[in-house]
Amino acid sequence: MARLTRARGRGLRSSNLVGCDPKVSLIPPNGLEVRDRRAAGLIAPTTAHRKARELTARIVRLTEPIKTHRANERLAAHLYRNQDHLFTFLRHQGIDATNRRVEQMIRPAVVNRKMWGGNRTQAGADAQSILMSVWQTMARLRQIDPLRWLSDLLRSPISAPLLLLVPSG
Asked: How far is CA 162 from the centre of its chain?
């Protein structure tokens, strides 16, 4: 869903979909509309589930004809292979339609990697992965500012709050 939505955002139109049915570009907004209607209480979750099946069937029908443009055939193959997952957000409330939130969560790690020239070894990549996981957990789940916590720890290790609660005894 995210790939098709991004493609549509870059101007996916019938002129860009050489040999591909232009109706493919209309399906993501239909799915988002169903999601919004369910969230507003205008339709029941069972209706959203049924609409997900209908949209999936439309995707399958539109991807079946052979495409004249190689990129469109690749997109059609991707949609066909992932048809069961395209509208998961309609079948299960609380699941995002795109991976935007996750991409924003890993953005600091990507910026850090680019600024410092990347990880030169697998061990470095593993260490950064663990540190970024702890960093995100502190910030998002524990509501602790990781930069302030690290600064306090370096200035006065005794007064910095513990990250983990260690059972006594």
From this structure: 32
Would you give the DSSP letter of residue 166?
P
pLDDT tens string 104-122: 877 877 777 777 666 777 8
Burial 47-86 (b: 16+ CB within 10 A, else e): ebeebbeebbebbeebbeeebeeeebbebbeebeeeeeeb
Instruction: Show Cβ contacts of residue 109 under 8 Å, excluding neighbours closer than 6 positions.
Output: 128, 129, 132
Q: Report residue 129: phi and psi, to 5°.
A: -60, -45
pLDDT of 120-131, one tens digit each?
A: 778 877 887 788
Q: What is the model's pTM?
A: 0.54
The number of beta carbons lying within 10 Å of the beta carbon of residue 12 is 20
Please give the Cα distance from 48 to 36 (Å, whole number).
Answer: 10
Q: Is 46 helix (H, G, I), strand (E, B) or coil?
A: helix
- The angle subtended at Cα 88 by Cα 85 and Cα 89, nearest 5°, is 140
Classify burial at 27, counting beta carbons within 10 Å of its beta carbon; exposed 0-12, middle 13-18, buried 19 or more.
buried
